[in-house]
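Quick one, T. Sequence first:
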Amino acid sequence: MKLGMIGLGRMGGNMAERLRRHGHEVVGMDPGKPDADAHSLAELVPLLAADGQPRVAWSMVPAGEITDATITELAGLLSPGDLVIDGGNSNFHDSIAHGTALAERGIHFVDCGTSGGVWGLENGYCLMVGGTPEVFAKVRPALETLAPEQGLIHTGPAGSGHFTKM
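Structure tokens:
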């Protein structure tokens, strides 16, 4: 699976590395990392094209204004059928709003409560995922790579992943 990882700090960087180690193609974006594949969302999105498959952008930035700005900008850059995953610690109310706003543009949304810290690279992450069953199924290969046995659950509609993590 090909995806873009937005935010290559301790969590996002390690998640990108774990995905790469297991055969996924990850395009990393971080304005503060000189060795990142892209330094802006406008640079990242064209790099996500994968043989006609929907583009997948996974945000691992701090909750709040930066997540809101990231999702708003992605909404203007992505196309119907593409997918945004918010793996940060967003408030579930914000996740519901993000899902609604993206759905109006035909863009799918998954909120993914993520636990595992810096140990996740080696030990895996616990992922609590909200979104439609169809969209969950599309990203399941990447989610299963990140989560060890019994570390992954589809919690229900958008917002429920961050609610469960809370």
